[in-house]
Amino acid sequence: MIPDIQTFEAAIAKTVDQGGGTFATDGTPFEPESGYAVGVGGIILDPATTGAFRLRHAFRQVHKDFGGNYVGTWLDEGQLYVDAVAYLWSDERDAAISLARSCNQLAIYDFAAGESITLADLEA
Asked: Which of 82, 83, 109, 111 has minimal CB crowding within 10 Å?
């Protein structure tokens, strides 16, 4: 079944409004109360030229290439990052940080705090 394109329009709106988001591969929001999202690999898009159809294709592509049940979006310095995401439980912070480093990620997302944890800040 092809996910409804309106679901991806909502995903774009959430990404723009909040600077990013975590979604199931069908584009529906994934918003647990705790735990960590770690990007494991993905693609970079130009947000100015990314509509709902392109975002849906990107979700499919990162899911195909990197696996996982979730996809994360993140706006940073004029780029739209679309990553396959591993979800780790709230007691797995160290594992989330280790996984992020092994995947060359800049940050992880802490659902309980509602904010990103920048890995460079942890080294300071």
From this structure: 111
**Cα–Cα distance between 57 and 120 in angstroms, integer?**
31
Q: How many domains does the chain have?
A: 1
- Show the domain range for 68: 5-123
Q: How many CB atoms lie within 10 A of CB 75?
A: 15
Longest dimension (CA), the chain: 47
Q: Which of 21, 38, 37 lies closest to 29 in space, CA to CA?
A: 21
Report whether 68 contacts 14 (CB < 8 A): no
51-106 pLDDT tens trace: 999 999 999 999 999 998 999 999 999 999 999 999 999 999 999 999 999 999 99
Q: Where are the alpha helices (DSSP H) in the chain?
A: 5-18, 52-66, 93-102, 119-123
* CA dihedral sign of residues 61, 62, 65, 67: negative
